[in-house]
Amino acid sequence: MAYLRRLWGTYTGLLASHPLQTNTVSAGVIGFFGDCAAQAIEQRQTQSKSLKIDWIRTWKVASWGFLAGGVPLFYWFRFLDRKFPLTAVGKRSQQDVINMLKKTAVNQIFAATLNNGGFYCWIVFCDRQLRPEKHENVTFKEEATHSLEKKMPPTMKRSFLLWGTAHLFNFWFLPPQYRVLFNSTGQVLWMTYLSITGHKRDI
Asked: Are 45 and 74 in contact (CB under 8 A)?
């Protein structure tokens, strides 16, 4: 326990001193573990006797977390904090509640849509580059459009239910330096879901 406390202290210290770099690496690592969990679930459903990780697939998901989950979210949450400021906990007013609701709604409408849709397009793009023989009879535009049309409606419904609730807590209680970390921690479960959904080929 003492070792874990020291490790956590080091990590939170890095979040305070190097928030951008720490959040970026964290997002990539979380994408990595999210996909490993997704593959474990898929193989368990097929009653596979041993776990065999597709490391190319894991790289795709981890790279999306690294590229989209660190730097963009870091600056996005800063923008939201400036646009919809909240006063300190214990001194908040009705206007703070309104700002929190606006901040959550804007985040879900813009950031969640771009992140989820971007992920599905990223998977299609990477698959086409890494395994072109499986995509010879369909263009990137056709495949990406089909993926978005089929997967985005249920994804966004689940996103609003999960992340809408989670970010009310995030924006109301957590200091700015922990926003991306909170988001990334929840992303372990969310990336597991996205990875399972994103790797279903239906075209």
From this structure: no
CA-CA distance, 56 to 127, in Å (whole number)? 9
The segment with the largest mean pLDDT, out of 44-53, 66-75, 165-174, 191-200, is: 191-200
Residue 33 contacts by C-beta under 8 Å, 6 or more apart in sequence? 188
Rounded Cα gap, residues 164 and 150, in angstroms: 22
Contact between residue 27 and residue 184 where contact means Cβ atoms under 8 Å apart:
yes
CA gap 22, 8 in Å, rounded: 13
* Residue linked to tokens 């065999």: 52
Q: Determine the distance from the C-alpha atom of residue 22 to the mean position of all C-alpha atoms in its chain, rounded to a whole number.
A: 15
Q: CB of 32 within 8 A of CB of 62?
A: yes
134/27 Cα distance (integer angstroms): 29
Residue range 103-132, pLDDT digits in tens: 999 999 999 999 999 999 999 999 999 888
In degrees, rounded to 5, the angle at the alpha carbon of residue 25 between the alpha carbons of residues 102 and 113 is 35
